[in-house]
Design goal:
The chain is mostly helical. It is built from twelve helices and two strands, in the order H-H-H-H-H-H-H-H-H-H-H-E-E-H. Strand 1 and strand 2 form a beta hairpin.
Length: 410
């Protein structure tokens, strides 16, 4: 964000499409498309293995335990142990793939932003605060990396887990399964309201972090000047005001996240309490077996962490969206045309189709001569008038009488 006093307006992004700039960064994921495909495949396999464990427990309770079959108990117990080992191995592979791809993607974005900053004119750097640029290529890119490598993955996995668990619950007991599915409605309303308010708070905090970083950098660079003019108390007061505003914004964000997380915890726990009471009644009436009730409760317990993490994932996504807005503000700035000649005109001192241009005067070049292709400079007739105010009006330029005339090529 540029300084407020420079008159350069700060872009706030499209409020109707908060994820637009984040979607524009998808090109940086293409070099790692294979890694991300394997990553999602491993994550889905982990989800399938974890969902299979409660079903195995149901078979154990309704089968070997009810029939007192030790052999069947050992076989099903070994199957559950194998599923746990496979799940642990796939989690390790998933995290290993995440670390390499996400770091490489962050490095590519940072390199492009740095190269773009080098192409921008000097007046851009005069208008923009250095701390704002520094926070964009450090903390903002870290937020985007965390979301694309962890937040986005767990968002997809949690949605898949929720849908798969609801299907299994409906198969075990339709009424209780639909009750669990209906609990998604208040979760959707809570997450929608939270995302709208957290987006604005996240952008405000990121801008304030850049302001504080700018103040610290300017104070460190001008430390001797500050001490010489006795401006220490004034700069200390400015830093205290900026730090206090940043602290207040951070506390407000934490309170908003805490209230939303409490609501996300309340909804699944209330649903679990209702399911336990209704499931016990159904088991007493014979509508559910003990194994089915245990499997139902175990599957529903698997939904608690995805729902609880929904607040963190939405918060991380909103922070990544505002960070992408700030990154695109820099990348969307086109380099100025100052200092460049018009299209079709060569730079001074560069060769054109007819010869060499020096100080705006064209001197022809002759091929086949020993000095062909060598620039032959002719002084600009206006340059004498610029050097001496008493030289009078300049003589009109005339074409050289010969390519090697001493008077013309002097």
């Amino acid at each position: 964000m540029p300084a407020e006093s420079d008159g350069y307006p700060a872009h706030r992004g499209d409020a109707r499409r908060p994820l637009r700039n984040l979607w524009r960064l998808r090109s940086y994921l293409r070099p790692y498309a294979v890694e991300f495909c394997w990553l999602f495949a491993a994550a889905l396999a982990v989800t399938g293995a974890s969902l299979a464990v409660p079903l195995v427990v149901q078979r154990v309770i309704d089968g070997p335990v009810a029939r007192h079959d030790p052999g069947g108990l050992v076989r099903l117990g070994g199957l559950a142990l194998l599923l746990g080992l496979v799940e642990a191995l796939l989690i390790f592979l998933r995290r290993w793939a995440q670390s390499s791809s996400s770091v490489g993607m962050e490095a590519a974005i940072r390199a492009d932003v740095y190269a773009h900053l080098q192409r921008l004119p000097a007046d851009f750097h005069d208008r923009w605060q250095s701390g704002q640029l520094l926070s964009r290529i450090t903390s903002d890119l870290s937020v985007i990396r965390r979301f694309l490598s962890f937040g986005l993955l767990f968002l997809v996995l949690n949605l898949v887990t929720y849908a798969a668990v609801v299907v299994l619950l409906v198969r075990l007991h339709p009424a209780l399964g639909l009750l669990v599915a209906a609990s998604a409605v208040p979760l959707f309303l809570i997450s929608r309201r939270f995302g709208r308010y957290y987006h604005a708070a996240s952008r405000r905090m990121q801008d304030q972090q850049g302001d504080v970083a700018t103040l610290v950098e300017e104070t460190a660079q001008g430390l001797r000047t500050m001490k010489a003019y006795g401006r220490g108390p004034e700069l200390a007061a400015r830093f205290a005001d900026g730090a206090r505003a940043l602290h207040d914004t951070g506390v407000a964000k934490s309170r908003l996240l805490a209230r939303t997380s409490a609501l996300f915890d309340l909804v699944p726990n209330l649903t679990l309490g209702v399911v336990l009471v209704a499931g016990a009644v159904a088991a007493a009436r014979g509508a559910l077996t003990i194994g089915e009730l245990v499997a139902f409760v175990s599957l529903q317990l698997m939904l608690i962490w995805p729902v609880q993490s929904l607040g963190w994932i939405i918060a991380n996504g909103q922070e990544a969206a505002t960070a992408a807005d700030r990154i695109q503000e820099v990348l969307d700035t086109e380099p100025g045309d100052r200092g460049r000649p018009a299209r079709g005109r060569p730079w001074p001192g560069r060769r054109s189709g007819a010869g060499w241009r020096s100080r705006g005067v064209l001197v022809p070049a002759t091929r086949g001569t020993p000095r062909a292709g060598v620039a032959r400079h002719r002084p600009d007739p206006w340059s004498r008038a610029r050097r001496s105010p008493w030289s009078g009006p300049p003589a009109p330029a005339r074409a050289p009488c010969s390519p090697w005339c001493p008077a013309c090529t002097r």
